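Hey, quick one: can you model this chain's 3D structure?
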Amino acid sequence: MKNNKFINGSIFVLSLICLIISCKLFLNLSIFADEFNTSPDVVLGGEFWLSMDWLRIGASALICFLSGLNLFQPQK
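Sure thing. Here's the predicted structure for all 76 residues.
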């Protein structure tokens, strides 16, 4: 039972780190695009890749949320 909590906690921490890194990279992209008077879709190579970047952030947030729910859910 203790091992299961450790695994769930590790998954939550790793998914939270992944979410923070993705958000920081997106923030740096936005700052770069603003300073060089361009748009994020030009920097990323098109509207499709900008959508994939948003999808990556959304998927990371969803995984982080679900792993957090799993961590704090009472075990039977």
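One thing worth noting: The first helix runs from residue 2 to 35.
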